[in-house]
Amino acid sequence: MAINLDRERIYIECPRCDFWARPFLRQIRHHEIIVCGGCKANIRLDDYLGTLRKAHSRANRALEELETQLQILTVNIKL
Predict the structure, then answer these.
(1) What span, in angstroms and rounded, lies between the C-alpha atoms of 32 and 18?
(2) pTM score, two decimals?
(3) pLDDT tens figures, 25-34
């Protein structure tokens, strides 16, 4: 089971005017440029050192491990 976080949003602050923007994680992963809603400056999004990609990979591994553990979980019910 893989999780897709591309449609999730995060808050970022404009370095010029401190206005808060909410880009999609997909936009950060693709290094897109967004326009600040406050000062209209161009903000180039960057996945610094691949941290977003690494976090996404760790989340998927954790879900796979959880799925594996749930498959081997057995429940004994006494009546």
Answers:
(1) 19
(2) 0.68
(3) 999 989 999 9
